[in-house]
Amino acid sequence: MANVIASKDVYNIIRQTLSMVNPDIMIHGEITGYILAKMLECESIYTRQDIADYAMLGVLHDIGLYKNEKHDSMFVLENYDVWAHSIYGYLFLKYLSPMEEKADIILYHHLDYRLYNNVQNKYLKITSYLNIADKMDTFMHMQKGDVDPNYFKEYRDLTFSGQALDLFYRAENKFKIIAKLRDGSYRLELMNILAARIFSEDQKKRFLQMLIYTIDFRSVHTVDHTMATTAFAREIANCMRLPSIDQQHLYYGALLHDVGKLAVPIEILESPRRLNDEEMRIMKTHVEITEDILTGVVNDAIVKIASRHHEKLDGTGYPRGLRGEELTLTQRIIAVADIISALHGKRSYKDSMPAEEIKQILREDANNGKICKKVVDCTLRNYNTIMLNFDKEQRETMKIYFMIKDQYDTIYEQFKEFG
Description:
Elements lengths: L6 H15 L1 H21 L4 H12 L14 H5 L3 H15 L6 H5 L16 H19 L8 H4 L7 H14 L1 H7 L2 H9 L6 H16 L3 H20 L4 H12 L10 H4 L7 H18 L5 H8 L21 H16 L10 H13 L5 H9 L1 H33 L4
C-alpha cells in the first residue's frame, strides 16, 4: 500500500488546521509539548518514540479548548472552567485517537498535586510533568502581570509536584529551554522530536478523524456531513474499481474536504433556515481556506480533491469555475459524494431526502452536464449497497459523537468535587 501521507504530514495538518482556529492555543500546545519532551529527555529513561508520543500529547493537551466558541485570550480560556476542556480533550484522545491508553494524562493535567491520591491513573508521573510544563508557559506569559513570583515556592507539592519542578529546572540548566523558546529555535527541535514517531496507516487515519471531530464538534451536522462524504466517496471508488493509490488519495481528500469550515461562524453552520446570499458567500469561502490549509502539507492530488468538491463539469461551480477536462475522476467522485451527503443528511430545516428524489437529482445534474455521468451511472447501479454500507458506518459515527457528549456530562459531575 502506497504511503500517500507521511507521519510528519499528520502533525503538520493538525498544526495548520488548529492554528487557523486559534493560533494561541496551538503555540501554547507546542511550547508545552516541547518543555515536556526536554524534561523527559533529561531523565534519560525514555526512548525517542516514547518522548515523541508524550510530546505529541503535550501539543494536544488543550485540544478540548477548540470546541469553545469564546474568543478570549488562550490563557483566559484555559483557566475558565479547567475541567470542561480537560474532559473534552480526554474524550477526544480516548475515543478518536491512537493515543487512547494515555488519555488519562489529559484528563488530570489540571488536577492539584495534593489530590493525586484520589485518582487512579498509571501515568500520574507524566501527568505531573505535563502539569508543570503547562504552568511554566502560562507563568512565562503572565509573569509581568498578576502572577506572584513566589508562586512556585508557595504551592510546591500542593498545586504541582516538587519533583516535576526540580526536573524542569534540571532540563532548563542542561538544554537552555527558555532561551530556545525566546528565539524560536524550539520549533525546529520539536519537529525533529515528533519526526521520531512513525504512524501506521490506521493511526494516521485516526489522528485525522480526531481532528475532524474536534473542529466539527460544535455542529453535529458538520461531523455527519464530513464522515458521510468520506464514506460515499469510498463506496463509489470501490464500485468503480479505482486503483489503490487513487482510493487513498480520495479517502484523505474527502476526510479533509471541509476543514475550511472551521473559519465559518457557527450561526451559519447551524442556521435553522436556508442561507441568504451573504451567508452563502461566507460559507463558500471554506473551500479556499481548505486549500490554504492543505497546500504544501499533503500531496497535490489530495489538495485538489479536497478543494474541488464544489466544481462542476460545465464551469458553473466554485471557487475556480473549472470545466470537465480540468477535473480528474477522483475529483468528480467527491463532487457526487458531497451532493449525496448533502441531500441525504438531515438539517433543522429539512429531513433526509427520499432515495428516489436523490437519484432523480443526480440523473438530472448528470444529464445537464454538471456532474460526471459515468460516476452517477455507477452510483445508481450500486445505490442500495452503497447506502447499506453507509448506514452501518453512520451509526458508528453518531454513536461516538453522542457517547462523547453523554460521557462529558457524567465525568463533569464527578469532577465537581475537585473544585
